[in-house]
Design brief:
Radius of gyration of chain B: 26 Å
Largest sheet of chain A: 7 strands, mixed
CATH superfamily of the largest domain in chain A: Succinyl-CoA synthetase domains
Number of helices of chain B: 13
Largest interface: A-B, 60 and 52 residues
Shape of chain A: globular
Distance between the termini of chain A: 19 Å
Helix content of chain B: 25-40%
Oligomer: heterotetramer
Order of helices and strands of chain A: EHEEEHEHEHEEEEHEHEHEHEH
Number of strands of chain A: 14
Strand order of the largest sheet of chain A: 3-4-2-1-5-6-7
Number of domains of chain B: 3
Chain lengths: 290, 381, 381, 290
């Protein structure tokens, strides 16, 4: 099994007539994702890789019964596109764009939450349930089906971790990039319960980084609720205070709030195993899986 | 992106929050001229981006021409926590009865907006929080709901439901909330928000930090932005379309993702080193882009080696390798280049590097070990 | 609460929606005077609250002074569906290229706001809906979310994504949405919204109906309200603090709740009768209030009998009975009073009525039978 | 059993220092309702009938663990008070005021819904689960505990129906006034599933009236989903078109939309038994209960 998406998830691509949208719609189809339509206002005459294109999400949903949407839409139009998807009743929305104003995301996150919609991103490669469905743009060849659930703020570190796992023949149930922004849709804490309920996920890997307190929130949740074991990695122990380290959200506040050291301490107190290096992750997973 | 106090106050004034009469001066002469209009009873305030200006002696009060001159000279020759003073705000002095604090920012944990109010204004809000937590109210505002009447009750309570005062204060809170939302602020703060002897309420100081991601729709703030206050390497990087982070070591890390770059930095630290800078190529970089990236990091004279850490996804390794190879002429022999490649078209990339005389490591730890050796003059790979 | 077309247009103009040049005239002379300023090329539009004015001949076009005079006389002497014409809107004629429809109202089923747009403007929207449903788009807007960019795509679609046109139209849609929300409208409508030969878009007609419950915060609209257009009995009732509904039968129903009154009316109908009016005392009425209510319904000359139907909850029956008893002197002998009392302090109420010579029924059906008999001259109770 | 409220429901009274709020707080306490606190900004020094008074709902909830709130607040302040209650996390909010602008209620209804809050009213006497809890201002003496669930748009007609039922010894599980406004919180359709899940509710009485289409929406729901039998009464068959019949929501549109005749037809088609007169309700209930 997997969480959030599987072979049955019907996916639409918002912004399908754009370069990125068209390209990744094709790759997702090739991977086996059940892509059912695209949306692009004013382009409903077109057909992209044999997929019908609609002017609005509502039409696409009415005609195809779609469950999920992925947005290849520029940052300045992302808020509107996310709200359109939620308003049309979609319960899974993946926003990949980087550089979305945080007030936009603050609104989207809270609106999604109130409408029982799982919003993934922004600034994420998306979500993949290996061999079932991929709603994102990750290089899918590195993923293997299996029983590790993985959640990561960083895209590249999730690739790195997955690559290490797959190299050791350790597969993944679902891998989710939650994005590196200070405000995003689903956080660690929002997704952990889903993995905990998935009988096929035997261990969850949480790849966090400096900035904010999402890892600390997750630690509290894990301590009180999780039955499935969790392994955590925190990037950024070498980051100086007050510097935004590439991700909008990766910043240690002056005073040390959000530091890797503090996060690791909180996680350790919650009895969560820490992977000091990315290469430690497969070893720790094996220990649990065997 | 930060702006100066006088600019933040201009935004406040544009939105009908009262501020003292004043103007910014770029020279002592100008400071004197502005002071003359205010009868020389002025506050002279160094305009800097760093915090703690008051304690660092960045605010002076004058009552005659001589004092203005002396103090302006002093301030223009001062550094506030390392930041040189190029602008002075010259303002009419105010008769203050009480100082309040009013601010809005993001509650990153709860993912809501937060309104902060305190009756103990004029001092650092973190200090108040530590010493007199009862003096502060922190009000989370659901961004979908927006600021509503009931959100203001805790403020009313701290002011003992003083109707007369609240009738003047509440419109200011609403206006500041409007500024926070409509100017895409990460943070907006009035400290102190002063109740004057004549009963008026004025913003005596102002702080406003804009979300970098909202630059495209905040032309007004962008016009206020003082480029010189930015790190010049980071600025050049931005102009070339890269996120560059200047640090105080000697390795340039070029990678195709922020997370990967951070992890590389962590590994460097475990080897007792740190980076001169970090440059994120982000996804799908071309050979051309790689060449531009190399040019940017070479502008940093601290750089003693360049480390490429690439995990190909959308990014194709052979494009990166091609870019590295074509850059070699530009890079002085004294600056070694070490590479690591993984993911999409890795083998082709490694082949190209080999032709250019470079070895590629397969994992992060290896490439970091290589760069350490390279700087120490050892053989690479 | 409805306002006239010219008033609705004034609201539009205040909110930067373009309207034709024009003024309202209260007399033929005034109409001629206004027309003179417009070179007599004018539309003369009867200002009435009823719909279907155009088809009823309420809009005329003149091109010279004589025509203006003749048509103004004609319109001022006309009744539009029974409503007399007291005001004429005199407007410059427009060269129309295309007529659109734009409206906002409540979707009562889904409990959302609804934006309605049609390319077939100028005619009744219900007709378009019946004949050319493809020509109409109906867009539900979550009131928490408010109007967003994506809501406008269906409008863009119906206009074939004509950018030039959309750039002019979309600001109007946003402004009308602002009017709808900020003026507490039950309904706001521009029909036709005309694209003129010169490319400008103007509101050629306007309809705005305000939510009565929002009167307290809509002073501007309240000032526009024409009291004379209301039923005078209902108006008096409102001034006395009651909801009164004027009907065309002969019984006055006084009750302590709208539902109870409606059910009483239903029962009356089953007995082949109907009410002259209905008056709702609402909860907790005092004897004093009851006396005022009786005075109000007696102003209706259609009333041949008064029926009290009271189910005491917060309302206490003895208060009502006291009020009825004290009103008896005021009520002519020719107008019988029948009562029904149930609920809080029923027995005391019945006792008081008995002393005043009145019997009380115990249920709704009984009191209705009683009033029917009473009007027919039979014995009551 | 009962729905929404019972003996354990902890209730706060917003506007408790007002005349109505204070009066009905007392009556609710006397009835046995678990009233735990009042809210009245700036009046937290006071104590009303031994109940603590707080400045904000949040404080009241934090200190007492309240679940529900009833608002004795003037119409112009109702929106703010409702939003405060929802924002403080309350899941049951009863707004009694009459004459609230419909745009205010449109917002409150949708905001409540998104926050999984059951909003009752406005323009309602409230909700009562006889012998357990009363969150409202109805004259409680006429109610008897039993197995009839009742939902009514009109307050007086619910009294009338309950009185008729109790006179025949037919008790009620829960009686809810949803109010006579065109936009309200919970509608028939929102409440019917709760009655359907309540094992002690054997029959539901729905007292509708002219205007809108809430009864039609309910009919469709009942037809497709309800196991518990439903009896309906519709007031207003004698109401002329275009006249607002006292309740803001009681209006037959020109053209006949929202007429009693049409509603009864739809209900009949959904095989819902119609009570032509209020006095028929006990007879019809008995038929089902016996």
């Amino acid at each position: 099994m997997s969480i959030i998406i599987d072979k049955n998830t019907k996916v639409i691509v918002q912004g399908i007539t754009g370069r990125e949208g068209s390209f990744h719609a094709k790759l997702m189809k090739l991977y086996g994702t059940n892509v059912v339509a695209g949306v692009s206002p004013g382009k409903s005459e077109e057909d992209v890789h044999g997929l019908p294109v609609f002017d609005t999400v509502k039409e696409a949903v009415n005609k195809t019964g779609a469950d999920a949407s992925i947005l290849f839409v520029p940052p300045r139009f992302t808020k509107d596109a996310v709200l359109e998807a939620i308003d049309a009743g979609l319960k899974i929305v993946v926003a990949v764009a980087e550089g979305i104003p945080f007030h936009d995301m603050l609104y989207c996150r809270n609106y999604a939450f109130k409408n029982n919609c799982i919003l993934i991103g922004p600034n994420t490669p998306g979500i993949i349930s290996p061999n079932k469905s991929k709603v994102g743009f990750m290089a899918d060849t590195i993923y293997k089906e299996g029983s590790v659930g993985l959640i990561s703020r960083s895209a590249t570190l999730s690739y790195e971790a997955v690559n290490n796992l797959s190299a050791e023949e350790i597969g993944q149930s679902t891998v989710i990039g939650i994005g590196g922004d200070p405000v995003q849709g689903a956080t660690f804490k929002d997704l952990l319960p889903m993995f905990d309920e998935d009988p096929d996920t035997k261990v969850v890997v949480m790849i966090g980084e400096i900035g904010g307190s999402d890892e600390e929130e997750a630690a509290a949740y894990i301590k009180d609720n999780m039955k499935t074991p969790v392994i955590a990695f925190i990037a950024g122990e070498a980051a100086p205070e007050g510097k935004r380290m590439g991700h909008a959200g990766a910043i240690v506040s002056p005073g040390g709030e959000g530091s890797a050291e503090y996060k690791k301490q909180v996680l350790t107190e919650a009895k969560i195993e820490i992977a000091e290096k990315l290469t430690d992750i497969p070893t720790l997973c094996k220990k649990i899986l065997n | 992106m930060k702006i100066y106090e006088y600019q933040a106050k201009q935004i406040f004034a544009d939105n009908e929050i009262e501020i003292p009469v004043g103007k910014v001066a770029l020279s002592v002469e100008e400071a004197v001229r502005i002071s003359a209009e205010l009868d020389y009873k002025v506050a002279l305030k160094a305009q800097v981006h760093v915090g703690g200006r008051g304690k660092a002696g960045g605010i002076k009060f004058a009552s005659n021409k001589t004092e203005v001159e002396e103090l302006a000279v002093e301030l223009f020759n001062k550094k506030i926590k390392g930041e040189i003073v190029e602008r002075l705000l010259v303002e009419a002095q105010q008769e203050i009865k009480e100082e309040l604090y009013l601010g809005l920012t993001l509650n990153r944990t709860k993912k809501t907006d937060t309104l902060i109010f305190s009756r103990s204004g004029g001092m650092d809000i973190e200090e108040v929080a530590a010493e007199n937590p009862d003096q502060i109210v922190t009000i989370d505002i659901d961004p979908v709901l927006g600021l509503q009447g009931f959100h203001l009750t805790p403020i009313a309570k701290i002011l003992n439901f003083d109707k007369n005062l609240l009738n003047k204060l509440i419109p200011i809170v609403k206006k500041l909330y409007f500024v926070y939302k409509n100017y895409d602020c990460l943070l907006v703060e009035i400290n102190p928000l002063a109740i004057l002897e004549d009963g008026r309420i004025k913003a005596l100081d102002g702080k406003l930090e804009m979300d970098d991601n909202a630059r495209y729709r905040q032309e007004k703030l962008l016009d206020m932005w003082d480029e010189k206050k930015e790190d010049q390497l980071e600025l050049i990087g931005r102009q070339e379309g890269f996120v560059v982070i200047k640090l105080n070591g000697d390795v340039a890390i070029i990678s195709n993702g922020a997370g990967l770059a951070i992890s590389t930095l962590d590994s460097l630290q475990r080897h007792g080193k740190t980076a001169a800078n970090i440059l994120d190529l982000s996804g799908g970089a071309t050979a051309e882009k790689v060449k531009r990236a190399v040019k940017v990091v070479l502008k940093d004279s601290d750089v003693k080696a360049i480390l490429f850490n690439i995990f190909g996804g959308i990014t194709r390794c052979e494009e990166i390798a091609q870019g590295v190879s074509e850059s070699l002429n530009e890079v002085p022999a004294s600056i070694p280049i070490v590479c690591r490649m993984q993911g999409t078209n890795r083998d082709q990339g490694i082949e190209i590097l080999k032709c250019a005389g470079l070895n590629a490591a397969t994992d992060l730890e290896e490439v970091v070990e290589n760069v350490v050796k390279a700087i120490q003059g050892g053989e690479v790979g």
